[in-house]
Amino acid sequence: YWVKVNEAINTTDVIVAIFARANTILKITNVDFFQINPKLPARYADQKPRFAGMDQQTVFKVSTDNGIVGYGDCTSHVTMSDQEIDRLIDRSPFDFINGALPNGLMGALYDVMGKHIGQPAYKLMGPKVRDRVPVAAWTRSTSPEDLAREIQRAVAEGYMMFKMHTAAFFDVLELVSAVEAVAPNGFKMHFDFNHNRSVAHVIRLIYELEKSPVMGVIEDPLVWSDIGGWRRLREQTMIPLLMHVPQLGGGPEIINGCADLYMVGHGLGPSLARGYACAEAKLSTVVQWTGGTLAKAMALHLGAVIPNVSHSVNLDDLYAEDVTGGRIEIEEGSSPVPESPGLGVDVDEQALERIKRNPVTVVPRYISRLLLPGGHVYLSIGHPDVSRQTGFMEGNIRGVRLEIWEEDGSAEWRNSYDRLEQSGLSDGEYSNG
After folding, report:
1. Could you give the dihedral angle defined by the CA atoms of residues 156, 162, 165 and 166, in that order, rounded to the nearest 10 degrees?
2. Is the CB of residue 297 less than 8 Å from the CB of residue 336?
């Protein structure tokens, strides 16, 4: 319907006409964003401090002059000023192809563009190279026992990859042992080491981890700026190393052989550029585009066109409800790339209105009890700074353990909290109990 097509018009002419129509007619008339608080699953009901802030998403809605509406979402509460929104009004969404606007907004723009031309969003990103994208489940740092339960949950949902940040208050070797005890053959862990260590403090730990069949990828084992350390570590380990944010832009890190994989997901245009650059260097990428089902759909479109993709991390498995009313299926470790126009998933307006009314989860006051292997207990308000208080860098204390003591109304809790706060020891104190 865009042009009067007759037998004399060839395919190229039609394509040109379609995009001419898109650029000259379709205009953005309004941009809305909604800060919402989707509920987390019941399994996290008694772990509010652990998941503080995770019940926050932003949904973007882009309206156009021909009645098409597009949606996208992302984790956290994102804001846009009136001036930022005004710069979009009366512009064609096609002006922002490969843009670097907020991820949720880019999802909404691609949803509009795809719907306008009747094609899935990946058609506006590049040639499709896969029909399904491997996906990883996710959770926040936790104990070996909790991680084992999370792995079993993820396997039941169809996952074969799991991402989790390590933490100084849990022993990563104990975590790996817990995964080995419950994971099926072929299941792999993606551990994020938090880019906070030197080679001296990580190389022996990685040597131990190499022995485990569940080790898949280690993200950011070293500080990002230590290019020489990354190169040296990569030469000495068989575990693939993933770099999250190349401090020099990616090119120098690739040239210097720092990592086996590089993460994409910070802006669509930069993600595509880095993804294709990695492919040219015969390296792989991990897509991390986080939010609900809308965000996962956008990640799958991105993963459909980047040549070398290891897996995608989306966080959609973290929520008990979604503005689309559901989740994209996972089977044998991967999810299908949506084929319907736009992002390929529809927003349930009633679900959106209901979730918009959800309050932010109130995190109770709590005391951390850090159990050290020698029998000492370190108390602090909030999570402890283990490296500062013990002198050991993350991952170098075997058998360390964290317990969270939420406010329970007892005199014992209140007295302990007051003592820490009033004595100026809110950053911690040691005891033998």
Report:
1. 90
2. no
User: Residue 328 in contact with residue 298, Cβ under 8 Å?
Assistant: no
Element (H, E) at 406: strand 401-406
CB 116 within 8 A of CB 26: yes
Backbone angles phi, psi at 38, to 5 degrees: -65, 145
pLDDT per position as a tens digit, 266-324: 999 999 999 999 999 999 999 999 999 999 999 999 999 999 999 999 999 999 999 99
Residue whose pair of structure tokens reads 């002419």 in the numeric block? 13
- How far, in whole angstroms, is CA 400 from its chain's centroid? 27
Query: What pLDDT band is residue 428 in, cutting at 50, 70 and 90?
Result: very low
Q: Are 296 and 304 in contact (CB under 8 A)?
A: no
Element (H or E) spanning 32, and its range?
strand 28-36
Asked whether 138 and 318 are in contact (CB, 8 A), the reply is yes
CA distance 11 to 366: 65
DSSP per-residue letters across 203-238? HHHHHHHTT-TTEEEEE--S-TT-HHHHHHHHHH-S
pLDDT in tens, 16-71: 545 555 455 799 999 999 999 999 999 999 999 999 999 999 999 999 999 999 99
The first and second tokens of residue 255, run together, are 């040239």
Min mean pLDDT across 12-16, 153-157, 169-173 is at 12-16
Q: How far apart are CA 392 and CA 242, in angstroms?
A: 24
Residues 6 or more apart in contact with residue 170 via CB below 8 angstroms = 141, 142, 143, 144, 400, 401, 402
Supply the pTM of this predicted model: 0.91
Q: Count other C-beta atoms under 10 Å from residue 427's C-beta.
A: 13
Which of left, alpha, beta for 411 (phi over 0: left; psi -120 to 50: alpha)? alpha
Region for residue 330 given its phi and psi (left: phi exceeds 0; alpha: psi -120 to 50; beta: otherwise)? beta
Distance CA 50, CA 40 (A): 12
CB atoms within 10 A of CB 258: 26
**Lookup: tokens for 330:** 């996972």
